[in-house]
Write a structure and sequence with these properties.
The structure holds 2 protein chains of 2 kinds. By secondary structure, chain A is of the alpha/beta class. In chain A, 36% of the residues lie in helices and 26% in strands. Chain B has one domain. Chain B is 82% helix and 0% strand. Chain B starts with 9 loop residues before the first helix and ends with a helix. The chains are: A alpha/beta, B mainly alpha. At the A-B interface, helix 2 of A face helix 1 and helix 4 of B.
């Protein structure tokens, strides 16, 4: 599904990705974890073509990424900060993204699921952070794409919506879709993800299942296992 | 040939983005303030001057300074304010240049509409179409539109190259200040310092390299008040007064628009978001 080959990215003098190699197979949920500044968002953004790597190659579904844009038709992306043009109404924004994607969508079901009906005629600038995030989720999930990338999807969500989101993720996963998720909420990661990709200093430090991670670190608790892998690497 | 059912056409997408940016701005309070300002200005000038052609001259002095300033400020503000929205679009299957050009033309277009309608309504009500001033007025609106396009493009370029909003805003205002005020000062000083040399061609060229000066000269000469400008005015009239001069000046304004727009799309393609 995604193939990343010796990816290098520098911002000024700051090396963020340093020869990263990664293969993501189709189907399943991959959590991309790592300490702050380890390059999680940069990795996601290079896959999306938003950040242009200095060296290396990425292919998504056998199509190279560099200077291309059509491959994004098969990706749904949830950005970290949900900020939209303030003068647009929610339904206008949804209509606009549909207009741009030109793809069949089922936003009605999602609007109902997250209880957004009362907000459809409101301007986006008048919405709370959590409601904006729900709109963000509707925009991401309303299209049927094989690859879904979520950057901090739980931001600002109330408990009920969080449950809905998890249901939505497992529903889509059952259809054989591939997810890339970043999150700082370890409980959420443990609940939804099948594979862990742990980034450290611009390289993949660990890739495997949660069970493998626990065995490797000798911890029975997932949160402690993640903590252990970060401190373990500090001793090296 | 077998054509796929769903074709993605970059131009069509660009027009979609233009449309949304345009609507977004047309509904913001500031577009109305800008529109109402010109509406009021038009009525007041016509009321005070009581004559179309005189009102056009006063109007020129306002437009030549104000239109670039508003284009600069709106351009920078819109770019920074729509940063997250731009990121949302960048993750969609859209070509990068379509996003930025669409947004740029949306901003410049809505500003131009405010200008043309705000001034057009009072002047039309005053009997513009029956008057001789219609060509002068049209030229005024055309240069106003060019100045909007040029300064919005410069503002977008500056904003694209500066992540820091305060810096970007500062540079953009400085660029406007330079072209609107400082350039003229330097120009004037050089004329005084080198007064013993023939400066006709230098003046012509220096005028060409500043879109504000170029617009001002173009309108002044069209209004046929170049007699007020003395000897230099006569030289300018010889050049700008002719069809060739008009053509060259409009072409220069066109270049002033195309080059920043081209750079915008060039830089946008290589930038990280």
């Amino acid at each position: 599904m995604i193939h990343v080959e010796s990816l290098h990215k520098k911002f000024g003098k700051n090396v963020v990705l340093d020869g990263l190699e990664l293969n993501i197979d189709q189907g399943g949920i991959f959590a991309i974890l790592g300490p702050n500044g380890s390059g999680k968002t940069t990795l996601i953004k290079t896959v999306l073509g938003m950040v242009i790597p200095n060296k290396g190659a990425i292919t998504v579904m056998d199509s190279p990424v560099r200077n291309k844009w059509k491959y994004r038709q098969d990706i749904n992306y949830l950005p970290q900060i949900a900020n939209f043009p303030g003068n647009l109404k929610v339904k206008e924004l949804i209509a606009m993204i549909k207009d741009i994607r030109q793809k069949p969508s089922d936003e009605q079901k999602l609007i109902g699921l997250f209880g957004l009906e009362p907000f459809l005629d409101k301007k986006l600038s008048n919405l709370s952070g959590g409601t904006k995030q729900k709109v963000n989720i509707v925009l991401t999930f309303m299209f049927d794409s094989p690859l879904i990338i979520l950057d901090e999807p739980t931001n600002g969500l109330d408990p009920l919506s969080l449950i809905r989101l998890k249901e939505l993720i497992s529903e889509e996963k059952a259809k054989g879709k591939t997810f890339l998720i970043t999150s700082h909420i370890m409980q959420f990661v443990e609940e939804v993800s099948d594979h862990i990709v742990y980034l450290l200093e611009g390289e993949i430090y660990f890739k495997g299942s949660i069970a493998e991670l626990k065995t490797k670190t000798g911890q029975s608790n997932f949160e402690h296992a993640i903590a252990a892998i970060s401190t373990h690497s500090n001793h090296d | 040939m077998n054509m796929p059912l769903r074709q993605y056409q970059p131009t069509a997408t660009m027009i979609k983005i233009l449309k949304y940016s345009f609507y977004d701005l047309m509904r913001s309070r500031w577009s109305y303030v800008y529109f109402l300002f010109y509406l009021l200005l038009g009525f007041v000038l016509l009321f005070l001057n009581n004559e179309l052609s005189k009102a056009v001259i006063t109007l020129m002095n306002v437009i030549i300074v104000l239109v670039p300033l508003i284009g600069t400020i709106f351009g920078v503000m819109y770019y920074y304010n729509s940063k997250e929205f731009t990121e949302l679009l960048l993750a969609q299957p859209i070509k990068r240049s379509s996003i930025f050009l669409g947004q740029y033309f949306g901003v410049a277009g809505s500003l131009t509409v405010s200008l043309v309608l705000g001034l057009g309504i009072p002047f039309t009500l005053y009997g513009l179409f029956q008057s001789n001033a219609i060509w002068d007025f049209s030229l005024l609106l055309i240069t106003g539109a060019f100045l909007t396009l040029i300064f919005t493009a410069i503002a977008f370029n500056i904003a694209l190259s500066n992540e820091n909003k305060i810096k970007g805003f500062g540079y953009a205002v400085l660029a406007w200040l330079f072209l609107a005020v400082i350039y003229d000062g330097l120009f004037l000083m050089s004329l005084i310092v080198f007064e013993e040399y023939p400066l006709d061609n230098l003046s012509l060229i220096a005028t060409m390299f500043n879109p504000i000066d170029l617009s001002r000269t173009l309108i002044l000469l069209k209004l046929d008040i170049s007699a007020l400008l003395g000897y230099t005015g006569a030289i300018f009239k010889q050049f700008f007064g002719t069809n060739l001069g008009l053509f060259v000046s409009i072409f220069m304004l066109f270049l002033w628009t195309v080059i920043p727009v081209w750079r915008l799309s060039y830089v946008a393609k290589r930038k990280d978001f």
